[in-house]
């Protein structure tokens, strides 16, 4: 004889077992049934985690922010141990692209101290990037289905690689050549002596822009996994993508010359092509229609 148990809109069918000495089912069978009821999805579909209230969401957000800040603080402490080397590393490509005899200067007494703190913060964020991305994932995970939660590792890995790759591309390619371009306007009557704070502000903006650009493969990865975009769709609309890429490059580029816009647009176009390949690899494959 079958018995159907309804609990929280879930059902479990099981055979009625012989009663124990007092006529009640065994405790072990009750525990097994309760576990099955807890894990079994409704009508064959996987359930999302329990809904959270507004205050619970705020508490969860606070917890993730605190853990991310702790990770950044630890990264900053590690960065302060090598702060002189990091500052030198950050400004070396810029110095190499300056005209001969040109030096970075600072005119405000606390200017270099502020730069050192900012450099430590940036280094701390980059060092803590895996932890930060994991906390972001943990915050959004309760709203995902079980089969979607297995993408935690790809999310953390892709976003971290994108952040490091964008920072490296800005440091070694975009920013030095931009400084070299600005330095070409120097003349015997016009000295190019950039202030440290101005150079660092421009450096930071360029790096943040490149980090955002290098997240394109991550975004396409998850959109393709969810079936929202396909490789064919991305390839068919590549002409519109190129137009948008050059518009974004024109906005991000501080100068109006075509060369700097191309320097910005080239990696975005390359990442878009890579994203097409990623979408083709990870997009759900359609089952062939029956004959």
Secondary-structure blueprint of this entry?
Blueprint lengths: L1 E6 L2 E6 L11 H13 L14 H28 L1 H15 L13 H17 L1 H12 L5 H4 L2 H32 L12 H18 L2 H10 L5 H6 L1 H15 L5 H25 L9
Antiparallel strand pairs: 1-2
Helix pairs in contact: 2-4, 2-5, 3-4, 3-7, 5-7, 7-8, 7-9, 9-12, 11-12
Keywords:
two-stranded antiparallel sheet; mainly alpha; flat; 67% helix; 2 strands; disordered N terminus; 4% strand; 291 residues; 3 domains
Description:
This protein is mainly alpha-helical. The protein folds into three domains: 2-44, no CATH class; 54-174 and 194-213, no CATH class; 215-291, no CATH class. The protein has helices at 27-39, 54-81, 83-97, 111-127, 129-140, 146-149, 152-183, 196-213, 216-225, 231-236, 238-252, 258-282, and strands at residues 2-7, 10-15. The two termini are 41 Å apart.
